[in-house]
Amino acid sequence: MAGLHGLGNGGPTYDRSTEHLATGDKRRIDFSQVTEREIDKVRRGRDPIGVVRKPEKNGSFILRLSPTANEKVRDARLDSARSKT
Prior knowledge:
Layout: H1 26-43, H2 55-58, H3 76-84
């Protein structure tokens, strides 16, 4: 995957074809089906879920990781401590 350098490999690949899954494994089964479907899309040259090629159509936003100089930084822990006194 592009952009994920340094993460190493995902470890060994296991043969899951002999698994015996039960009804309690429904979410795992659903996840596997979605993963297979999205991998198949990429194999056919289509974009998988979550890929945004047209930001003007899908919308976009700016994520600021630190406040600007004019913004006051609030700490929820301080608010909680003040309400107890």
